[in-house]
Design brief:
Layout lengths: L6 H4 L28 H4 L17 H13 L21 H7 L2 H4 L11 H18 L3 E3 L5 H18 L6 E5 L5 H8 L3 E5 L9 H10 L4 E6 L12 H10 L3 E5 L12 H4 L3 E5 H4 L12 E5 L32 H8 L37
Parallel strand pairs: 2-3, 2-4, 4-5, 5-6
Antiparallel strand pairs: 1-7, 6-7
C-alpha cells in the first residue's frame, strides 16, 4: 500500500540556523543608565570566550513561526491514534491539564514551609493512600521522579532486602518482551540480566523460567514483570510465577506501564508482587513533561524482619516537581528500604488472596485529616 506524504511532510524542514540572517535581532533593548564595564573586569579572563557563540540571528516572529511549524510536524493524539507502545496508550483530558497548571500547584516553591503548603501535602497524602489501596500494598514512596527512576529504586530495594538477610545475589530475570528500561535499570543497579523466553500465547515460558531459576536459585535476586505485558497479554500463570520466585528467595517486581488495563479489576499485591512502580502520567493523567518527568510511585509490601518494626517509609516528592521535601522517620535508609521489600518469601503456594483492610498494618489506614507535615506511611 502506497503511503502519501502530507504537504508538510514533503516539505524539507529547515533548521533555525539556515534561517539566520546576519544583523537580525529578536529584540532591541533600550540603553541602560548604568555605566558599562569591560567584561574582563567582571569575569575572569580564563572564563571568557575567545570568540562569540554561534547563535542564529533571527527576528522574533520568525522564531515563533519556526517552532510552531516544527510542532505541527509531530504526530499527536489530537490528530490521530497511537497504535504502538503503552507509553502512548493514554489521553490526558484538557481539564486535568488546566488543574495541574493552577498556581497553587505550578507555583508552589520546593522550599515552602509545610505550614503554608497544607493543601499540597493533603493531595500527596491522599495520593499515597489511594495508590496503596489500588496496588494492594501498604507502603508508598512518592520520591521517584521518573519511570526509570522507579525501576532503579525498586531494584535498590531488592538489593537492600537481600543485604538485610546477609545474602549476595547477582541475577535479575526479565522476559524478552520486557520494556527496554528494565535491563538498563538492572545494569545500573549492579545486577546481571537473565532473559526469560516467551510462550506462544505471549506470556512467560514457564519451563524456561523454571530452568533459569534451577541453574542457581540462591543467585536469583528478582523477576521484573509487566502484567499485562508489552504484548497486551495478561499472564494467566502469575500465581505460579510468584510462587517460583518467592520459593527461590527472590522478589517480584511489577512494572506498572500497563496498570490501566487491570486497575479496579485486580491488584499487583494480590498477584504476589512485592514492589510496584506506577506511572502517574499513564494511569492518572499527570502531565508528561518528557525525558525524566514521568513520575513513578513505589508501593511496597512491609516485611516481618526485626529491623522493620516501628519504621515508616517516608514520602519526599509530590506528583509535581514543586513539593516540599520531607524528613525520613528512619535513621537508617537501608533498613527502611530493606523492610519495605522484605516480603519476598511470604506468598503462599496457592492462588494469591486479596489483602483485606482487617489484616492491613494500622499505618495503612489513617483518618481523613492529613498530617501537618510531609506525609509518611
Amino acid at each position: 500500500m502506497a503511503l502519501t506524504e502530507t504537504p508538510m511532510q514533503a516539505e524539507r524542514a529547515r533548521t533555525i540556523f539556515e534561517k539566520s540572517k546576519e544583523g537580525r535581532r529578536a529584540a532591541a533593548l533600550p540603553a541602560t543608565e548604568v555605566p558599562e564595564k569591560p567584561l574582563a573586569e567582571l569575569i575572569p579572563s580564563k572564563l571568557l570566550r575567545s570568540e562569540p557563540p554561534r547563535l542564529p540571528e533571527i527576528a522574533e516572529p520568525e522564531i515563533v513561526r519556526h517552532y510552531n511549524r516544527l510542532s505541527r510536524r509531530n504526530f499527536d493524539l489530537d490528530s490521530g491514534f497511537y497504535p504502538l507502545g503503552s507509553c502512548t496508550m493514554k489521553h490526558n483530558p484538557r481539564l486535568n491539564e488546566r488543574v495541574a497548571a493552577l498556581p497553587g500547584h505550578a507555583r508552589l516553591h520546593p522550599a515552602q514551609d509545610p505550614k503554608r503548603a497544607q493543601g499540597a501535602l493533603e493531595l500527596m497524602w491522599l495520593l499515597q493512600e489511594s495508590l496503596g489501596e489500588i496496588c494492594g500494598l501498604p507502603h508508598v514512596s512518592l520520591q521517584p521522579s521518573a519511570g526509570s527512576h522507579g525501576e532503579l529504586a525498586g531494584l535498590l530495594l531488592t538489593r537492600a532486602y537481600h543485604a538485610d538477610r546477609n545474602e549476595v545475589r547477582t541475577k535479575v530475570l526479565a522476559p524478552d518482551t520486557s520494556h527496554g528500561t528494565n535491563p538498563a535499570s538492572v545494569t545500573m543497579a549492579g545486577y546481571t540480566v537473565v532473559k526469560v523466553a516467551t510462550n506462544d500465547q505471549g506470556g512467560v515460558e514457564m519451563d524456561d523460567l523454571r530452568a533459569k531459576i534451577a541453574e542457581d536459585p540462591d543467585d536469583v535476586a528478582c523477576l521484573m514483570l509487566t502484567n499485562p505485558n508489552t504484548l497486551g497479554v495478561f499472564d494467566e500463570n502469575i500465581a505460579e510465577i510468584a510462587r517460583l520466585i518467592h520459593e527461590a528467595g527472590g522478589t517480584l517486581y511489577y512494572d506498572g506501564a500497563n496498570l490501566n488495563a487491570v486497575m479496579g479489576h485486580s491488584r499487583p499485591g494480590d498477584m504476589g508482587f512485592d514492589i510496584v512502580h506506577v506511572n502517574l502520567h499513564k494511569s492518572f493523567s499527570q502531565p508528561h513533561g518528557g525525558a525524566g518527568r514521568e513520575p513513578a510511585r513505589l508501593p511496597s509490601l512491609t516485611g516481618s524482619s526485626p529491623s522493620c518494626r516501628g519504621r515508616r517509609w517516608s514520602v519526599a516528592r509530590a506528583p509535581t516537581a514543586t513539593a516540599p521535601a520531607s524528613t525520613s522517620t528512619s535513621s537508617d535508609p537501608s533498613q527502611s528500604a530493606a523492610c519495605a521489600a522484605s516480603r519476598a518469601t511470604s506468598v503462599s503456594s496457592s492462588a494469591p488472596t486479596p489483602t483485606s483492610s482487617a489484616s492491613a498494618p494500622t499505618a495503612w489506614r489513617r483518618p481523613r485529616r492529613p498530617p501537618s507535615s510531609t506525609p509518611t506511611t
